[in-house]
Design brief:
12 helices, homodimer, about 300 residues, mainly alpha, Farnesyl Diphosphate Synthase, 2 strands, about 70% helix, 2 domains
Chain lengths: ~300, ~300
């Protein structure tokens, strides 16, 4: 699965002016930890920075910053958690791309294309490790063990989703239920994490379950939206490797025409985005950016037709 | 680089009876963090456990346990740090093997051979993440930020060493100095880490530099010892992909015969092991297992001849 749905800055995105600070922390942590006399690190480091500098929407960074802001965390803590969530997402992209043989991301050659598979593995490892180094920058050190364990838990789930996608099961076994399970494991785990981290750091452990449910609905909607944008590209790839696109899943499993499958996927997407937008309130409106993002995608998709 | 030099249990290895406890913690942390309804994780998890169950000497686990014991840390903390160091080492093996196209490890097919490159990436990620989850189990939570940052620093250095090994530089540029830099970055960083973690947890930050120097000497000796055992295999592979074996490096760079290169490497190995064994004392003898291991390898190699 890949991601091409762009999310504009929304009204609630008040803390997004701190995104550049989170970027700086990410770069600092990637730069640090190196021996001055070991030039060796530079290839993985250069590749990691190449990937980060290619852009991206920083949705997870913005989610962490806004939630942290709502919950009254310090700016520094919000930045640390934003960097953690964003680094993990980017580590997963660098490692997923060679697995899926995706060649272009954010308009540039993917890391494995530009630097080779070996460097891509090392660059992804570097970002995964850096994510833990940034979470260790929070001021509430008494919460650090819980934060680290939450990060590990969500990484485990995201890995599960990724593994399921290239499992040896024949593609016709991928029905809508399996698709949604993979989407929520793979995307929901890391989309919910920034908000969960802010809640946990703020002492709102009880709200994690609701957050995860909202993140799963949003992730399902987001992933389907993405598939709707990409189905023509994925259709062209269909003969080579199995591609997990909900339009193709619905077409194959329900014997639908392309048009009917597309419209069926559209309905499913709107339903999940509505669920995300109408989910239970999180403490101190810390889930408001999720809601706004869900509403924005919903508005964009509602009147869209198959092209 | 690979590792086949086996280390027997030494007299100082008093805490090694806790190795199975560290193994249990490793397995627990790999098992945890999973959604009950996501079967998906199982492939990466199964592959990670397959790798761990194939054996290994658990040198890093034993080093952490013995140092922690010497420094008076709690057994629980020693176990947490042992699991961290051992998980990191195994994560690096799982990710290095497909990079080096090594097919067999510990007598079993490597993870990428048994499960595919994609699963190997995910399984290595899982162990890398699990390493941070285990360090978060230490009781001294005030030290956790420093411990996490130390782990990240050593991972960065190990990645640097690994990257240098498959850098596009022609193999004839790998002289002895470059070889030693790679060996110490790649192996020294993760061999010193268990002792460094114990020292840092015990409040002996000032001893980290000496530890790292000892670890580097030991790593250089250990790696050369390994190369001496493997040079015939590596010689056979020499025509296909460049292999970084000190015997071949000395042969090519110094225009030596195989026998002379082997004996030259043997001398170099003994020199580094002697440096490791005679290094400055670490607090409360926390480096004694390093010293014993260095002495053991030294004794084994001293009278060895090229086969």
């Amino acid at each position: 699965m890949h991601s091409s749905a762009s999310m504009c800055q929304t009204a609630a995105d008040t803390a997004s002016h701190d995104v550049p600070e989170a970027e700086r922390l990410m770069a600092d942590v990637i730069e640090s930890g190196d021996d001055a006399d070991t030039q060796a690190t530079s290839v993985a480091k250069i590749a990691a920075l190449y990937h980060l500098n290619a852009g991206g929407q920083r949705i997870r960074s913005r989610l962490a910053l806004d939630s942290a802001h709502c919950l009254g965390l310090t700016t520094r803590d919000g930045i640390a958690l934003a960097a953690t969530a964003e680094l993990l997402h980017n580590a997963s992209l660098i490692h997923d791309d060679p697995q899926d043989r995706d060649q272009v991301r954010r308009g540039s050659p993917t890391v494995w294309v530009a630097y080779g598979d070996e460097v891509a593995i090392c660059a992804g490892d570097l970002l995964l490790s850096a994510a833990y180094a940034t979470v260790a920058c929070v001021s509430c050190t008494d919460m650090l063990p819980s934060l680290v364990k939450l990060v590990h838990s969500r990484i485990t789930q995201a890995i599960g989703g990724q593994c399921a996608e290239f499992s040896p099961a024949p593609v016709h076994l991928f029905n809508t239920d399996v698709y949604l399970k993979i989407a929520t494991a793979k995307s929901g785990a890391l989309l919910g994490l920034p908000v969960e981290l802010a809640l946990l750091a703020g002492g709102y452990r009880g709200a994690l379950q609701t957050t995860r449910a909202t993140a799963d609905s949003f992730a399902a909607g987001y992933q389907i939206y993405d598939d709707l944008c990409d189905f023509e590209i994925d259709l062209a790839r269909d003969t080579a490797a199995p591609v997990l696109n909900i339009v193709l899943v619905l077409k194959k499993n329900n014997g639908l025409s392309i048009r009917d499958a597309w419209e069926s996927a559209q309905k499913l997407c709107l339903m999940h985005l509505e669920a995300a937008a109408s989910s239970t309130d999180l403490p101190r409106q810390s889930g408001r950016l999720f809601r706004e993002m869900a509403n924005e995608l919903h508005a964009r998709l509602k009147d869209k037709c198959i092209q």
